[in-house]
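Here is one chain, start to finish.
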Amino acid sequence: MRFLTRVGALAFFTFAVIGGLHSAAQPAGHNKKPKPSSEEIAQADRLFQSGSFGEAQKAYAQIAAKDPKDFHAASQLGYIALLSNKLDDAEPWLRKALDLKHGDADAKIMLAETLYRKNDFFHAARALQGLGPEDAAKLKNYSTLNVAKLESFRDDDPYKFERDAGESTRLPFIKSDPLPVVNVRVNGSPDAAFFIDTGGSELLLDSEFARELKIKPMGSVEGTFSGGQHAQVENGRVDSITLGSWTLKNIPVGMLPLRSMSSALGAKQIDGCIGTSVLYQFLSTINYRTGELILRKKTAANLKRFDAAGGPPSLPGASRRSGGHTKSQAGNSGGTNSANRAGVTNGIVVPMWMAGDHFMVAWGRVNTQPISLFFVDSGLAGAGVKLAESAIQQAGILLDESKATEGQGGGGTFKTIPYTLAEFTLGEITEQNVTGLYDGPFPWESQFGFRLAGMFGNDFLKRYAVTFDFTNMRIIFR
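Its structure:
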């Protein structure tokens, strides 16, 4: 028995040596994986540009597996993870991209945005080091990434609760039309009227109101507003904001003239705006039906309670349908399936992504056109949708020039021309005879590397209680 074992061991050793010699004799690179082809890379890019983020992610992952030193694949995998708000996936991919291509401005900015969304402002500022004036244009979709402001949070946690004040707070609307307006207190001020606008980023203060509060400016950036207009937005921070029963400390803010919008919003005086970056901190519901903004702490227990709570899913005049396009969207989502598995009771779930620093996007359909991605802008007043000019032409929509009026936005006044869509579909919701608005170029159509066909806004949303769940990246309509 011992002899046979020894012979077997010797035989194994002999074959191993021969095998090793044989391998050494093979041509170099015999066992290497083939490099990704140019067509594989082009196909991955086409999938991304079409908004098929899930399929694009798989394609880029295959490229990265074949060539771990492919900067483009690593950067795109980081970008898709950021769009899906999977920050723990985005950060290592973007750091890998920067290892492969030191100093790349786009990768730096995306890494900074990843850290910003984690409320790690100081390290977000560090990630931006090395950017120069020539990179300013790349920051236009990230107006919140102001280095001086971010660095000021070195020893402070943003959005910190002053005390334990319960799991949720409610802010009743003091006005609902044309946009919801609530009362907010800033640095202990008297009640100040703020409108709610997911088209905005951080908490925005009227410039004069900010001066009254003696808020220190920390540099400015150029913002893009309705009508394709531009205006300077100053960056800063405030000590506290009071939202209903909650008081939060260390709040980043933007500052621009907003009081000029008071008349258009039917308010005595508008002092600010609650934007997406504020809603992002919570499980946030704009309940148009009961007239209140509901903010819940973003915890697993609150998400579970919300999902189980339920509520009426449809209203007179709107139809709910499980159209075939919903299933095709799920295949392209890069996150839709997990959102739909979240088990909402009596609600309609629409997957979303977030581009730039606040641009929530979701799949929708104009009339019988192919599904497209749309920006969720609750601050679009007086219309349900605003389409890019290319989408208007594709759908054969006629503008009603005889009803042109003047609108007011963050960048000033602009001309608006109405039109009507036979229907607009979002997930399982279809609204008929939806009012549209044309106010000039749609500046975000190609801004993010994929196409946005337009935006849907207040007049589409105002029939529902609309909840934004940034944990599962979904919008819930009830």
